[in-house]
């Protein structure tokens, strides 16, 4: 069964390709009838795909569900366009932001968890923005771990923010140099983005706790258990948008009028398939922005669980 995240993220962007690449499985009984139905279904999907707005056809070529299975996340590629200026004051995001800003004053490590696409990246950037504006920190550092972190790349990215030039190519020695450099700054916020499993931040060179009480860690992860394993002193869950919040965001991103038109009724059905995930909502809405009623109907026609053969 495809998860909510998988459906929402890949639904509108990858359906054109995934439906073409999907192989049918024939039953031993009634093979002829089954094949006939499959052919008719494939023909309908091809016709719907031909009607798909060109903007969404182009989007679907970015990557396929086969290349990036459900649960896989690339680093920040594809989501960097959602910056802190796109922060939405949903009930969940406002609550999470307030909790983080309060906790960051009294604890060293905070864990923000929620399904991919729910807005952890945007919220983390907003925390960094608030931290700078309120002069809570002398330096705000953010890097992405993902499932296969490149420690060398991360070390050099962090070092550059402290104007540190490493004197060695040895990873452990670089960690020591970075550790000492960061200890020399009083107040630091380190945002560890997209952490998938327990990880020793000391191996990068990040000092915290007794080694540097002024260094605060905010980590984001799709899995709550990662927060526990990392011994976060405060765990915060970021939930999906409510139905009304999701529609307001979708309508704004697609530049739709606030009325009861037929187009809006179709658009609401499309928005509903994004399952309240801001990343899916923004991506889909922007792809369909400027389309007429036929374009929206075509997009709505090929969406849903039937398109995935479920």
UniProtKB/TrEMBL annotation:
<feature type="region of interest" description="Disordered">
    <location>
        <begin position="20"/>
        <end position="64"/>
    </location>
</feature>
<keyword id="KW-0067">ATP-binding</keyword>
<dbReference type="Pfam" id="PF00931">
    <property type="entry name" value="NB-ARC"/>
</dbReference>
<dbReference type="GO" id="GO:0043531">
    <property type="term" value="F:ADP binding"/>
</dbReference>
<dbReference type="GO" id="GO:0005524">
    <property type="term" value="F:ATP binding"/>
</dbReference>
<feature type="domain" description="NB-ARC">
    <location>
        <begin position="98"/>
        <end position="255"/>
    </location>
</feature>
<feature type="signal peptide">
    <location>
        <begin position="1"/>
        <end position="18"/>
    </location>
</feature>
<feature type="compositionally biased region" description="Acidic residues">
    <location>
        <begin position="27"/>
        <end position="41"/>
    </location>
</feature>
<dbReference type="InterPro" id="IPR002182">
    <property type="entry name" value="NB-ARC"/>
</dbReference>
<dbReference type="GO" id="GO:0006952">
    <property type="term" value="P:defense response"/>
</dbReference>
<dbReference type="InterPro" id="IPR050905">
    <property type="entry name" value="Plant_NBS-LRR"/>
</dbReference>
<keyword id="KW-0732">Signal</keyword>
<keyword id="KW-0611">Plant defense</keyword>
<dbReference type="InterPro" id="IPR027417">
    <property type="entry name" value="P-loop_NTPase"/>
</dbReference>
<keyword id="KW-0547">Nucleotide-binding</keyword>
<protein>
    <recommendedName>
        <fullName>NB-ARC domain-containing protein</fullName>
    </recommendedName>
</protein>
<dbReference type="InterPro" id="IPR042197">
    <property type="entry name" value="Apaf_helical"/>
</dbReference>
């Amino acid at each position: 069964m495809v998860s909510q995240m998988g459906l929402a993220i890949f639904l509108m962007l990858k359906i054109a390709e995934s439906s073409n690449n999907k192989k049918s499985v024939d039953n031993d009984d009634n093979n002829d009838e089954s094949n006939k139905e499959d052919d008719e279904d494939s023909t309908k999907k091809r016709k719907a795909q031909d009607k798909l707005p060109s903007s969404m056809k182009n989007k679907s070529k970015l990557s396929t569900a086969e290349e990036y299975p459900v649960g896989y996340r690339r680093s920040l590629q594809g989501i960097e366009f959602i910056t802190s200026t796109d922060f939405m004051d949903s009930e969940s995001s406002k609550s999470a932001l307030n909790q983080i800003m309060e906790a960051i004053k009294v604890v060293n490590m905070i864990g923000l968890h929620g399904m991919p696409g729910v807005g952890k990246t945007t919220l983390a950037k907003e925390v960094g923005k608030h931290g700078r504006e309120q002069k809570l920190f002398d330096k705000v550092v953010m890097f992405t771990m993902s499932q296969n972190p490149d420690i060398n790349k991360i070390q050099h990215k962090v070092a550059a923010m402290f104007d540190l030039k490493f004197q060695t190519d040895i990873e452990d020695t670089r960690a020591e140099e970075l550790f000492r450099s960061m200890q020399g700054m009083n107040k630091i916020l380190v945002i560890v983005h997209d952490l998938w499993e327990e990880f020793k931040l000391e191996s990068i060179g990040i000092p915290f706790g007794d080694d540097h009480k002024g260094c605060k860690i905010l980590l984001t992860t799709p899995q709550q258990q990662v927060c526990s394993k990392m011994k976060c002193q405060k765990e915060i869950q970021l939930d999906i948008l409510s139905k009304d919040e999701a529609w307001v965001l979708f309508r704004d991103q697609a530049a739709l009028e606030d009325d009861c038109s037929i187009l809006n009724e179709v658009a609401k059905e499309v928005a509903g398939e994004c399952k309240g995930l801001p990343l899916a909502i923004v991506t889909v809405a922007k792809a369909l922005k400027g389309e007429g009623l036929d374009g929206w109907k075509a997009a709505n026609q090929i969406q849903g669980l039937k398109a995935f053969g479920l």
